[in-house]
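hi! just following up on the protien thing from before. the input was this:
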Amino acid sequence: MTQRHPVQNEVLMLVTTNTFYGKKFFENAAYATEAIEHLYRVQQLYPFFIHGFVIMPDHCHFLFTVPAGGSISKIMRAYKMGLAFQLGISKLWQPRFHIREIRNSTEALKYILLNPVRKNLSEMPEEYPWSSAANHWDLEPLEIPWE
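and the predicted 3d structure came back as:
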């Protein structure tokens, strides 16, 4: 079987997935919170390392490392299908997702965590509640770029 995503294991990946036609489902605080909690439930099923994330109103960014033997495709399928089921929204996501192998972890993390600031959703990254910058969730540590 051919993989659409050749980058799979033991590399730092920036994963982006978009909501269906850019609908701002995650403006709803309960949905955004569930998006984060579901990420950690998927991690229990398919072990991977979460280094950072942000749940924006119409898309999500994740910084992941998948250990040997894991599959980013399985992780994202479980995440997207499971969250759509949990929220009761059959058309929650655009098909597919985008991944990019990351060479500079600091720049990637900065890009993710500053996303709410660039979109005027918060003044500081740590003020945005649906981001790993808020320091409410367990993460595999990477250097925090603005300190």
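Residues 12-134 form a domain with the Alpha-Beta Plaits fold (CATH 3.30.70.1290).
The beta strands are 12-18, 49-55, 59-65, 98-101.
cheers
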